[in-house]
Amino acid sequence: MNVLAALITAIWMALPAYIPNNVAVLAGGGRPIDGGRDFRGARLLGDGKTWRGTAAGVLAGVATALVLNGLVGFASRVLGVDLPIFPLDVAIAFPAGALLGDILASFLKRRIGRARGSAFPVVDQLDFLAVALGLGFLIAPGWMRSVLTPLVLVTLVVLTPGLHLLTNGIAYVLGLKNEPW
Ligand code: CTP
Ligand code: MG
Asked: Ligand 2 center to residue 144 CA distance, Å?
């Protein structure tokens, strides 16, 4: 696989993990997952992790995978790359893992005394990808090994922080997000 094919495959396979956090920003609000509870002197997760944002994010991620499955033949022909089809378990695991990663990072941030919205460099940019891919490996190891070649993995690790900062920067400029990270 050449670098361009790896780049296209990386973006394609990660889209169901990229979309949920952005949709959570748009849909967030309402009841926090932790119900306002504290844990060891700080909020368990904080007001930035809500049921509505999480549910909307997972649904949007699953829908993304299903739409990509519908387009896979056409896209593979046009782009000249043999793009993967998402099995249903992966289509659910990627969005759920992405939001779980983000939630775990908030848990960690509260434990080390960082307020809601504070930046946590590297973790903020890669938490969702790491847990989405990890859950993918747990649920569909064969599919993951065939799609996530070492080159695709390296591409994702290099590409994701930049993409994350770009989309969050855009959301900040549009007034949709309180911080640009
Ligand atoms: N959001 C949500 N539910 C989630 C994730 C995000 O409702 N599971 C929404 C919240 O409105 C949140 C916004 O998206 O404020 C931005 O998400 P993020 O930057 O992840 O949260 P922060 O507010 O920065 O909180 P934290 O410091 O806990 O990450
Ligand atoms: Mg944040």
From this structure: 29
